[in-house]
Amino acid sequence: MDNRKGPLARDAMAYVLAGGRGSRLHEMTDTRAKPAVYFGGKSRIIDFALSNALNSGIRRIGVATQYKAHSLIRHLQRGWNFLRPERNESFDILPASQRISEFQWYEGTADAVFQNIDIIESYGPEFMVILAGDHIYKMDYEVMLQQHCNSGADVTVACMEVPRMEATGFGVMHVDGDDRIIDFIEKPKDPPAIPGSPDVALASLGIYVFTTRFLIEQLRRDADTPGSSRDFGKDLIPYLVEHGKAQAHRFSSSCVRSAGEPGAYWRDVGTIDAYFDANLDLTDVVPELDLYDHSWPLWTYSEITPPAKFVHDVDGRRGSAVASLVAGNCIISGSSIHRSLLSTGVRSHSFSMLDEAVVLPYCHIGRGARLRRVVIDRGVHIPDGLVVGDDPLLDSKRFRRTDKGVCLITQPMIDRLV
Q: What are the Glucose-1-phosphate adenylyltransferase/Bifunctional protein GlmU-like C-terminal hexapeptide domain coordinates in residue numbering (predicted)?
């Protein structure tokens, strides 16, 4: 048991794994990594993990990037350059750069840390908090650090309680009565239940806490192991479950909630439908995720923009938005917006209509366009009079339409219509 006083976060480094493509988002990740995808009108997905680290008191942060990283790196440079070395703070962007071999990129999540051991050691953190950079949630990592020290675990794994048969798409922790992990099963057909709760399972969130010295030892051991895929979930965690002490940390105990948030909120927005739903959920009167909680702010790169503007006030040509989020520098010019989220710099022109639309930055919606249940990628120019959402068969031919009827629209798709 660790009896020290004061926060452990000041002796920790957060290491964010942000190299994944997110192929289930299809064309949305053709030009950017999944952590760089826009969310909530003015933020990126990675801002949640980074903000959690900062709000938890962690002042040393590293971000490992790989797939199509330019958009992500540019965002990090613009929005996260306020951490200062003279205050014992650091922020390192760590692209796959063949630092230990001229032939080797990051082979897996563990390898993305292993290749930067020298940088980690130069800062000398006592603890490492390993994070995925592609989930939406608010969490105080200090609580997890305290549990890690008090339990004497080799690794602590953040887990979320989910209905047992919904856990088939996760790595599932089989735990004993003290939440010690006794087995780790990747995407099981019959997930093991939590003791005393036969209908509930513990799904791994891809968040791990180690002491730095122990983690480095394990990374070096894994690197010397023939056949390893160099991955935390596939290799390191199962090894430690079998040969060490792995402890589960329940997300509900460290999830940050404002007074208006009813429960522990965590989302993987890795599909178009999940991404669409999570964004539109923010338009609810009392959303499950509170972006207005000043006690746990969502840090991001904030562009200097003029306010949103609504113009024209005649029947059939009234600039209005109901049950919607509208970011700065948007102009709603005689357009009707309902239950939609408009990111920075959108222009929606006269007689157009958006109903359940997630519109990314700097899109133009042409006059008379009618769009229902759409995700519109950044910078798309919707032509005058385009109708989406009325004819499923036609929509499927022109755009990427999901089984739930959500259409993803990109500029190349629009260009093919001409």
A: 306-409
Confidence at 97, pLDDT banded by 50, 70, 90 = low
Residue 41 among known ligand-binding residues: no
**Contact (Cβ atoms closer than 8 angstroms) between residue 131 and residue 16:** yes
Q: Which residues pair with 310 in a beta bridge?
A: 332
Phi-psi region of 362 (alpha: psi -120 to 50; beta: other; left: phi over 0): left
Q: Is 106 one of the annotated binding-site residues?
A: yes
Residue 187 annotated as binding site? yes
Kindly report, residue by residue over 5-44, the tens digit of the pLDDT. 679 999 999 999 998 878 899 999 999 999 999 999 999 9
Mean pLDDT of 216-241: 95
First to last CA, the chain: 68
Q: Which residues pair with 255 in a beta bridge?
A: 139
Q: 390-416 pLDDT, tens per residue?
A: 999 999 999 999 999 999 999 999 999
- What are the structure tokens assigned to 407, written together? 């259409």
Residue 2 has a CB neighbour count (10 Å cut-off) of 11
Residues spanned by CATH 3.90.550.10 within the chain? 8-256
> Quick one: fold of 309-416?
UDP N-Acetylglucosamine Acyltransferase; domain 1 (2.160.10)
pLDDT band at 206 (very low <50, low <70, confident <90, very high): very high
